[in-house]
Amino acid sequence: MTEGTQTKKQNLDLALIGNSCAAAFVDQNARIVWWCYPHFDSDPVFSRLLAGDEEKGFCDVTLANLAKTESQYVRNTAIVETILTDANGGKVRVSDFAPNFERFERVYRPPQIIRRIEPIAGLPRITIRVRPTHNYGRPTTNFVVGSNHIRYLDGSQVLRLNSDAPLSYIVNEIAFPLTRPVNLIFGQDDPFLSAIETTSREFLDRTRDYWQAWVRYLALAYEWQAEVVRAAITLKLCSFAETGAIVAAHTTSIPEAPWSSRTWDYRYCWLRDAYFVVDALNRLGATQIMESYINYITTIASVDEEMQPLHGIVPFTPLEEWTATDLKGFLGMGPVRVGNQAATQRQNDVYGSVVLAATQMFVDERLPKMGDESLFRLLEGLGERAIVHAFEPDAGLWEYRTRALPHTYSATLCWAACDRLAGIARRLKIDDRAKYWSANARALRKRIL
Question: What is the secondary structure of 253-292 as a DSSP string?
Fold first, then answer.
């Protein structure tokens, strides 16, 4: 909860909304400060988080005579509710979410963000401000207003806002009394064929039901359930459903330490980190994310035998690193980087990370389709690479950019690859390969110790 003004200094007390296609951050004052559109690693249309002190790259709802704000997640969902209260007791509720529910026998998860703004007490006066950016921080000034939509035309992707709020008030940032619910639907440049109010309300209800049903089937211990549920939802939002990639973060260039210049783009899938996400969600019973991730890594392994340590959410997307000069960085702490040079590094632990993740496919009896010999043969190629590279110098877990050294962690993960392959071979009753991988695992272990 915060008191008073809605123009406080930017911080990282943010709420994440998303649907495994779109992901956005909302601050405590109902301001969307970061949204990469249409996908996790795309150009941010809302980039205020990294704009320094510049008033660009956001969508907010400001309340006249603001006295208090309260923000929280709707229980067991990825929906955020912010209550704005004015000095006269007027109240506004802003519900932010990305549509996510079963529809036509599939999960409906478009690259779309919806803001539902409702008066809940008094006669509040609000201002809706929409200031998108393109090309990593350049203000979008080219737009066209239709009967119930605004098309923002700069950049490679057209962003469309469908709304039943007065569009002239949005364009000119004019305060108006909120006497009924209004809705902002950001997304693809497609005509909106149904009633905006009805659609927004229905999508909100169905998205709430989807998340609460998903949480209901998680296997939770007695303690810390609320915290574990929130962590599980957050990890699920890091999964890109279309390909199965699991991103390390939805942001780029948040400083690792103040004024350190260690500002990296983490909107990609590190094969090492993704294993830990898969393992954590598997322990909770969320196995579908693992199945999708295995499809992602087998797509990569079928082509890239050397296995670069990270990929884009679409495999083999170029990740050349460059600096976005129109964004000044979080609290001015730049530079803001796009892409990641670590994709060109050798990190020898990656072979073990992939095999460890894939091992679940052979042992988890909950899965409708378990791993077979064809998947095992594909993983064997990674095991052979692990044997060759286990003790070679690499950038290591810390991704050193200026030196390569032998790392015990990398060697240990290479051992893990051989050890798990031996176990898989025994389970598949391929005795000669079980002996082969057991022997290699013993040899690596002996050398490590």
Answer: ---SSTTS----B--SEEHHHHHHHHHHHHHTT--HHHHH
Average pLDDT on 32-36 reads: 98
**Number of residues that make up the chain:** 449
- Structure tokens given for 307: 């296995």
C-alpha distances in angstroms, 200 versus 41, 147, 162?
26, 18, 11
pLDDT of residue 305: 74
pLDDT at 7 over 70: no
Residue where the block lists tokens 């539902």: 116
For residue range 345-371, list pLDDT tens digits in order: 999 999 999 999 999 999 999 999 999
pLDDT tens profile 150-197? 999 987 889 999 999 999 999 999 999 999 999 999 999 998 889 999
Question: Residue with structure tokens 């990674």?
Answer: 382
Q: Are 94 and 72 in contact (CB under 8 A)?
A: no
Does the structure show a pLDDT above 70 at 11?
Answer: yes
17: three-class secondary structure by DSSP: strand
**Location of structure tokens 């884009």:** 312
Backbone φ and ψ for 398, nearest 5 degrees, come out as -90, 0
Domains in the chain with CATH codes: 2-216 (2.70.98), 225-448 (1.50.10.10)
